[in-house]
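2024-03-11 09:14:02 INFO worker-7 job=invfold-0412 stage=load source=structure_tokens
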């Protein structure tokens, strides 16, 4: 099969979060399994010259968008056996930042239309011609399936293309005034109702309606978004289209997140040498001026400081948490009220807690490698990657059973020695506190804790598992 990913970001070129991690890893892994894969991205100004200088100019075309006739250039770069194409238009993409501009709807409508218009230039794979599958990602590419049907489906080159719409986070839908459907996007009246929802334009809804399949980043999240609590207003559409919605759990780059190779660690270790992890704990405690006590459990958090990530729960019972014989380190930025609260609490408990109100990939790896436990009490979590990363380093997750957290963290059973972490169900601070207490109690039992670490470190979180499921999904359509 030939699969084309259309996305607004991808590692290693440009990324702001989980979407960039997925698009940077999944196509590469699908390619390694024998499929022909390419990715198309906007050519943002912030893509470094190191990559730009290696790109080859492929061609250009006029891209019609409503009444506009815009330039669309196409560049190509081969990277890890995947063809990456970049759509060039300085009016839309020569600016600082990927998102948050007043005309984001127009920018990504142009990108979606340009990806389709320039598709005949993208000769990748052994056989020339159109891809079998276009894999769209989040609202920024939600117009691709509807534009394919509205403008291109009647042409021989495009007539057999199937589409997949991936939802990485349904909270972001590309909603704006419905005026744009005709006057900016140029969607004809015959397809306008597909883009409109509750009196507005909704780009993600358009993709859900038009794509052959819809996939979320975990099986549990695929079920949760049928509920109004999680669906952010799209529950009616999702229920009506439930027959084509499924979930596939993300993976992580197991070469990048590898305690045997990670240069950020104080001491490298593996599942066969778990005792060496203690050197990372001592180094982490020293880095944050905490007493170097091996017998005291150290809990780490690497997170955005927002209510979605459960920081309100942590602050609600922080004094009860710190009354236990443990230490806590929090790394991240976010809402100022949480940043200030965590700094104040850390000042009250200088020997038990440290707050690092910044982000550093180096320090994050040190926390994954040096903490005993990793706290992730999210209100909702489409997939989550941090819990998988922590398990790679033998750091035991404490999570709420939601989305990908539920799918990836089986609760530890002390009788059978099965499971990889500690969980709680209700979004409640005291239920979270109970899970922390259970983890601390198990930490005191060295036999049980060793079994738990072994279970966590031996789990397969590679993208190969996910990629096989995606290939099966593509073949089904």
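2024-03-11 09:14:09 INFO worker-7 stage=emit residues=477
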């Amino acid at each position: 099969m030939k699969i084309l990913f259309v996305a607004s970001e991808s590692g290693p070129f440009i990324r702001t979060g989980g979407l960039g991690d997925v698009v940077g890893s999944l196509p590469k892994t699908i390619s390694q399994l024998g499929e022909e894969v390419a990715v198309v991205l906007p050519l943002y100004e912030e893509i470094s010259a190191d990559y730009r200088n290696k790109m080859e100019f492929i061609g250009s075309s006029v891209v019609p968008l409503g009444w506009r006739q815009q330039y669309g250039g196409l560049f190509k770069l081969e990277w890890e056996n995947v063809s990456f194409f970049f759509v060039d238009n300085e009016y839309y993409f020569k600016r600082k930042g990927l998102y948050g501009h007043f005309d984001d709807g127009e920018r990504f409508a142009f990108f979606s239309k340009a990806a389709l218009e320039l598709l005949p230039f993208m000769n990748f794979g052994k056989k020339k011609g159109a891809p079998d599958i276009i894999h769209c990602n989040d609202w920024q590419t939600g117009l691709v399936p509807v534009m394919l049907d509205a403008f291109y489906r009647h042409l021989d080159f495009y007539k057999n293309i199937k589409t997949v719409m991936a939802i990485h986070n349904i909270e972001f839908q590309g909603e704006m005034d419905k005026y744009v459907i005709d006057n900016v996007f140029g969607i004809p009246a015959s397809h306008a109702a597909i883009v409109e929802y509750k009196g507005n334009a909704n780009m993600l809804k358009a993709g859900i309606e038009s794509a052959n399949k819809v996939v979320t980043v975990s099986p549990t999240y695929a079920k949760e978004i049928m509920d109004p609590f999680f669906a952010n207003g799209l529950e009616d559409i999702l229920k009506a289209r439930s027959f084509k919605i499924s979930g596939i759990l993300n993976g992580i780059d197991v070469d990048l997140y590898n305690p045997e190779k990670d240069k950020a660690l104080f001491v490298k270790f593996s599942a066969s040498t778990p005792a060496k992890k203690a050197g990372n704990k001592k180094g982490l405690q020293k880095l944050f001026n905490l007493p170097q006590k091996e017998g005291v459990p150290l809990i780490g958090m690497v997170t955005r400081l927002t209510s979605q990530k459960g920081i309100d729960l942590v602050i609600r019972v922080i004094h009860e948490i710190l009354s236990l014989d443990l230490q806590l380190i929090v790394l991240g930025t976010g809402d100022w009220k949480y940043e200030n609260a965590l700094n104040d609490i850390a000042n009250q408990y200088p020997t038990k807690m440290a707050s690092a109100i910044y982000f550093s990939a180096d320090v994050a790896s040190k926390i994954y490698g040096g903490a005993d436990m990793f706290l992730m009490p999210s209100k909702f979590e489409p997939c989550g990657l941090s819990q998988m990363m922590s398990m790679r380093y033998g750091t035991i997750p404490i999570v709420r059973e939601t989305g990908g957290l539920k799918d990836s963290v089986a609760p530890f059973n002390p009788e059978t020695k099965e499971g990889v972490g500690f969980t709680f169900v209700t979004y409640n601070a005291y239920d979270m506190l109970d899970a922390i207490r259970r983890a601390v109690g198990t930490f005191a039992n060295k036999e049980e804790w060793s079994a738990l670490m072994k279970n966590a470190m031996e789990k397969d979180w590679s993208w190969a598992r996910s990629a096989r499921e995606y290939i099966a999904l593509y073949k089904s359509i």
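2024-03-11 09:14:09 INFO worker-7 stage=report msg="The two ends are 11 Å apart (CA to CA)."
2024-03-11 09:14:10 INFO worker-7 job finished
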